[in-house]
Design goal:
CATH superfamily: Jelly Rolls
Strand order of the largest sheet: 1-19-16-21-14-13
Radius of gyration: 22 Å
Number of strands: 23
CATH topology: Jelly Rolls
Largest sheet: 6 strands, antiparallel
Helix content: 10-25%
Strand content: 25-35%
Number of domains: 1
CATH class: Mainly Beta
Bound molecules: 2,5-dihydroxybenzoic acid
Structural class: alpha+beta
CATH architecture: Sandwich
Distance between the termini: 48 Å
């Protein structure tokens, strides 16, 4: 071992490595320990954004940027500090595959329609009254709703309601960028006009698990709005059975025509951690971004304690040990997105349970306050 190391560091080998690099060739003997570590070495780091910080920045953006002047959405993305700001690859990456942002729309505003090869989802965190118009269908949104915007469909937003609205966006931007699949078109009409009845996709699924017989064949998003009331009912309906030891009571938003995740590359979950719940620790190859919808507690990630409260966002990178604790006086509700479907599709999903069950807390994360 020692001998190999000395040999690789010898001036002769180092000089040859440089000689190869100068003509756009590369020595595998130098690269392999970094390219093929024995297990994942995430570049994304665990991180937490406090709601107060995000709210302050959105309120400042409200003054500085309007969709009318800027021609785009008023969205601020969560940049993972371990990935590279303003540099492909890594720009606008919350995890190595996913982008997450918070978006503010004010009454009277409209964000122009466009389409792109990234698939989007939204989780509505504050307010009601705005709609997104997806391929001619106006879908009205309110707090707790989950919406999908499939790849390639026109979508824009407008707000005829009365109060500011804020939601979380998640798209597979870093993934699509890395594999060279990015296409984008602005809509010729600025905001697309309605061409089908408002909310008609969700109307077709009022029966819950009953689907129109024409939906036997897979479609990208036959159901595009999942209301908070149904999600909450699904979670409360799990009472009386033991919670999952890692995730509490948890449900996944699915595409009813395929039974697969509602977004092809993102698993979207809502978890209910009962009052006093302390999960077991595990790690897996998929990375997650959590939004604290209700409640308070903490998550230990690789020995670091991340304290969270309503509105906060937390990243748990791939292959990081983590466990959740609800310290509040009520059940906690965590909305999360992860790249589990990507890992499964590449046959890379693996999980390990920490034999000790819990991690010792070695440090406490200090969030940025602005
Ligand atoms: O609202 O359609 O945060 O297209 C990033 C890209 C939001 C959106 C984002 C988008 C949108």
């Amino acid at each position: 071992m020692m001998e190999t190391h000395t040999f690789l560091d010898s001036p002769e080998v180092q000089q040859f490595n440089e000689e190869l690099e100068s003509v756009h060739l590369g020595p595998l003997w130098h690269a392999i320990p970094v390219l093929m570590p024995r297990e994942p070495q995430p570049q994304a780091v665990p991180y937490l954004w406090k709601w107060q910080l995000l709210h302050d920045k959105l309120m400042k953006a409200r003054e500085i940027f309007t969709p009318e002047r800027g021609g785009e959405r008023r969205a601020i993305y969560l940049q993972n500090p371990g990935l590279r700001q303003r540099q492909p690859w890594g720009w606008a990456s919350t995890t190595q595959t996913l982008y997450a942002a918070v978006q503010l729309i004010l009454p009277g505003e409209a964000a122009p329609s466009h389409r792109h090869t990234q698939s989007a989802l939204r989780f509505i965190t504050h307010g009601k009254g705005a709609y997104t118009i997806v391929q001619g269908e106006r879908v009205f949104m309110e707090e707790g709703d989950f919406l999908t915007t499939p790849q390639g469909l026109w979508h824009g937003h407008a707000h005829p309601g009365e109060e500011p609205m804020i939601w979380m966006d998640c798209l597979d931007i870093p993934l699509i960028y890395a594999i060279g699949g990015t296409f984008f078109d602005p809509h010729p009409d600025h905001l697309e006009s309605p061409s089908v009845p408002d909310g008609h996709s969700a109307q077709r699924y009022q029966g819950g698990m009953l689907r129109p017989i024409s939906d036997r064949h897979p479609a990208a998003a036959p159901l595009n709005r999942f209301r908070w009331r149904s999600t909450e009912q699904a979670l409360l309906g799990m009472d009386g059975t033991p919670p999952d030891p890692f995730d509490g009571y948890a449900v996944e938003y699915i595409n009813p025509s395929t039974g697969q995740s509602a977004h092809p590359n993102v698993a979207s979950w809502m978890q209910r951690l009962p009052k006093g719940f302390h999960s077991l620790a595990h790690r897996h190859t998929y990375a997650s971004i959590y939004h604290v919808f209700r409640g308070s507690g903490y998550t230990i990630v690789n020995g670091q304690k991340f304290e969270w409260a309503e509105g906060d966002y937390l990243v748990v990178p791939n292959w990081a040990w983590h466990e959740h604790v609800n310290t509040g006086s009520t059940d906690a509700y965590l909305f999360s997105v992860s790249d589990l479907p990507i890992m499964e599709r590449f046959n890379l999903q693996r999980e390990e349970v920490l034999p000790a069950e819990h991690q010792p807390i070695e440090s406490v994360f200090e969030p940025a306050l602005g």
